[in-house]
Amino acid sequence: MEKGRRGWRRGSEKRTAGRKRAARKRERAARKRSRAAMKTSRAARNRERAARNRERAAKERKRAAKERKRAAREKKGSERENGQQNRERDGRGENEDSENERMNEVRDKYRAAKMKNSDERKTDKRE
């Protein structure tokens, strides 16, 4: 026998005393919660329901957006394939690279002309 925090107890009782106290505390809290739940007003319940509905709607919107994006991605992929098929049909299948090269050449030509003009302007200013 020894005096613990809870008065005179045997060893085993001292160990269980804390556990029992914690259990009682939990039960009391649970009772309090259930009483509070019974007391909640209709307005509060409606608010909770509305909040849940909002969450659900938001999730649904998010899911729909993902679905739309996925569909758009797939559509884009199929369009790309169609474009490739059309080019092949028209006999310009692998010519896309040469087309790009031609565009680059045109761009370079214009760039060179621009540089030449700017150089001429600079020389004019010097004179």
From TrEMBL:
It comes from the Eukaryota. Residues 1-16, 45-58, 74-127 have a biased composition (Basic and acidic residues). Residues 1-127 are annotated as: Disordered. Residues 17-36, 59-73 have a biased composition (Basic residues). This is Uncharacterized protein. It comes from Zophobas morio.
